[in-house]
Amino acid sequence: MSLPDDPARQRVITLSVDVFVTIGILALFMALSFTLIAPFASILIWSVILAVALAPAFDWMSAKMGGRRGRTATVFALLGLVIIIGPTVMIVNSLIDSVGEMVAHLSDGTLRLPAPPETVRDWPLIGARLFETWQEASVDLLALSAQYAPKLREVAATLAGAGAGLIVGVLQFALSVIFAAVFLAWAAPLAEATGRVAGRISGRGRAMTAMASKTIQNVSRGVIGVAIVQGGLAAVGIIVAGLPLGGILAGAAVMACVIQMPPLVIIPLIILDWAINPTLHAALFTLYMVPVLFLDNVLKPILMARGLTTPMVVIMIGVIGGTLSMGLLGLFIGPVILALFYEMVTTWIAFEAKGLDPTTGEPVPPHPAE
Predict the structure, then answer these.
(1) Contact of 85 with 170, CB cutoff 8 Å
(2) How far, in Å, CA of 115 to CA of 108, rounded?
(3) How wide is the angle at C-alpha 320 spanned by C-alphas 84 and 80, nearest 5°?
(4) Residue 329 — φ and ψ, nearest 5°?
(5) Which helix (H) or strand (E) holds 207?
(6) Which residues are registered as beta bridge partners of 363?
(7) Can you tell me the distance from the alpha carbon of 236 to that of 292, in angstroms, rounded to the nearest whole number?
(8) Domain ranges of the chain
(9) C-beta separation of 75 from 82 below 8 A
(10) Chief location of this protein (predicted)?
(11) Which of 340, 42, 90 is nearest to 201 (CA)?
(12) Which of the pair, 87 or 18, is modelled with greater confidence?
């Protein structure tokens, strides 16, 4: 027995089919669009992060140049490229010179290591083995390097791959600087469009967008800015102290500070200085490097929570978790996502406690009695 045709039911079915077809077509176009922009995704994300982080500096420079945003963007991009490429070339040249000098001395047998102090033998776990290897290296470094040649080749191949990746990363970052300058030149219309999209998604979309922008600016100051200052001071200390292979060690110290792990390089350098240099030299080096080691612990809390209602612990969890899961890019994305989630949860709890609709802010009508 067939049911009679219901016009209302037919309209619902037709509307449902239209909705599913529309959603399917939109999903298809979105998937294709993401596929097309996927190769440039990291560059575009970095461009947005740089544009947001550097917006105050760009506005100041634009005001000094008479409000000509296009010309300011050109100057801004050129300055950014000089700042990125200049130190990179200097570090690469220093690394090449250091490695070349080490290889040359190793080949002609003139590279010598000082004999290890007897105190090294008493170090827990690694002392005896380290003393023995160090002693062999101080007697005949060339023979020891030949003994460990296969492992050294593996390490060299790994370092070469890391160097190639670093060069690609620098080139991508240079492109990001150029795109960021373009975004800054068109900051007002882009900000308005972003605010409209965020407003369509949520009633608090514009407030969330402003908070995300503030979070990126604070993280850039509190993480990258502090890391550059900390790494620069560490590099100066290494070069002034005259440690062997100073260019390589200085570059390693800067990278360790950028990835938020300065003890990974600074502590071994302090130990090395005590092992190979006189007591006064090592004491002065330690007195300089210990404050540098803890510099980020002092400056980060001051800079990262400025102007935000999000607790500092939420920002730091986002920074650490984002860095561990997504690398350097996650250092910015992590705290933004976690801060937005925190604000959404606290807003939802506050509106629910006041009996308001979280999406509209209007009072929720009481449920009719059953």
Answers:
(1) yes
(2) 20
(3) 15
(4) -65, -40
(5) helix 205-219
(6) 356
(7) 11
(8) 41-185
(9) no
(10) membrane
(11) 340
(12) 18
